[in-house]
Write a structure and sequence with these properties.
Blueprint (H helix, E strand, L loop, with lengths): L9 H8 L5 H11 L9 E3 L3 E2 L9 E2 L2 E5 L4 E7 L6 H15 L13 E7 L11 E7 L6 E12 L15 H11 L5 H7 L3 H15 L1 H71 L1 H28 L7 H5 L3 H19 L1
Length: 348
């Protein structure tokens, strides 16, 4: 039977990487991510709730905070959904941990590195689609870092390309990412077969212990429920945002349509009114003809503008100026009344 314990639930994640009796797992994960840097040989776990530096400062609350024998501090955490300002949050936590390492009377050259490792179920950076993102302070024209003291590493699990069939030849960081993403779907025996290294065997036993210990399983399920509730709130918020945006878009679109339709109708009406007025004015008197023509033209223009607008709202073929000019006012009034009835019937 599959373990059924997701390592990405914060309770399970802290049991794996935040306990002294399993610190081999923490050391393994850090060394895997920091490939090529001085290896971690031992760690001491620190209080994850750091006191404020001043009265108006913020408390620093971390998932896992550890320090190695070289004085390097490691902030290790997991994120299922990306909160707003994720990049800025990680930069703040890393810099804040670094600053807290300088005691009164010490020189800056006595500062020790602050390194953050964040496991992401999603993506912080979609392109390029990279599993491991390594951020440091660098000059734009050179790969050389200004300092190695500030590092932020992201493991983007949704960019993992390794499968169970290719796991044997995968890199160490890919193997840890595969375990974190798929361990809950397998049994301890299957994990041991696929990942025979001792750190993965121990990690599988930690998940198995959670599943078989009632108190731990209860705590795990509570954190799992909290995560699912948060995911549901995010989905609901997005859905409500889309609905509000769509309604606002329709409202603005209709208002703009009326404005454009009326303006176009007046423009057409004035032009057509002058034309008709001049033509009819020859027979009944130029002054009277222009007056009547303009009045009828404006009326015709308004009618045509309203007809054009209703045709758009009802998604009917939009008439051309020439087509509308072929109808008299009674016919235009009749067309307008029919379309108004259609619109009322649709909205009922």
């Amino acid at each position: 039977m599959a373990l059924g314990i997701d390592p990405l639930v914060d309770y399970a994640f802290k049991m794996l990487f935040g306990r002294t009796d399993h610190k081999m797992l923490t050391i393994s994960l850090i060394n895997t991510v920091l490939d090529g840097q001085p290896p971690v040989t031992d760690v001491t776990f620190l209080n994850t709730i750091q006191n404020k530096l001043s009265a108006d400062d913020k408390y620093l609350i971390l998932d896992v905070l550890a320090e190695d024998v070289l004085g390097r501090k490691f902030n290790i955490e997991v994120q299922i959904a990306l909160p707003a300002g994720m990049a800025e949050r990680m930069a703040f936590y890393t810099a804040e941990t670094w600053i807290r390492g300088l005691r009164e009377g010490q020189n800056y050259n006595e500062l020790r590195p602050s390194i953050s490792i964040c496991v992401l179920a999603g993506s912080l950076v979609e392109q390029p689609a990279r599993l491991h993102l390594d951020f440091r302070l660098r000059d734009l024209s050179s790969p050389r870092p200004l300092t190695e003291h500030l590092q932020i590493h992201f493991l983007q699990l949704n960019h993992l390309q390794v499968t169970a069939d290719t796991l044997y030849n995968a890199s160490p960081v890919e193997r840890w990412c595969w375990f974190l993403r798929y361990a809950q779907e397998l049994t301890t025996e299957q994990l041991t077969l696929l990942l025979p290294d001792k750190e993965f065997t121990e990690a599988a036993k930690v998940l198995e212990m959670i599943a078989q210990t009632p108190e731990q399983l209860q705590e795990y399920n509570a954190r799992l429920k909290a995560r699912r509730d948060e995911e549901a709130r995010i989905i609901l918020g997005r859905q409500q945002g889309l609905e509000i945006g769509e309604a606002r878009g329709i409202e603005i679109g209709e208002a703009r349509g009326i404005e454009i339709g009326e303006a176009r109708g007046i423009e057409i009406g004035e032009a057509r009114g002058i034309e008709i007025g001049e033509a009819r004015g020859i027979g009944i008197g130029e002054a009277r003809g222009i007056e009547i023509g303009e009045a009828r033209g404006i009326r015709r223009g308004l009618l045509q503008g309203q007809i054009l607008l209703l045709q758009q709202l009802l998604r009917l073929p939009v008439s051309t100026d020439e087509q509308l000019a072929a109808f008299d006012l009674d016919q235009l009034n009749h067309m307008l009344t029919q379309m108004q009835q259609q619109l009322n019937h649709r909205d009922a």
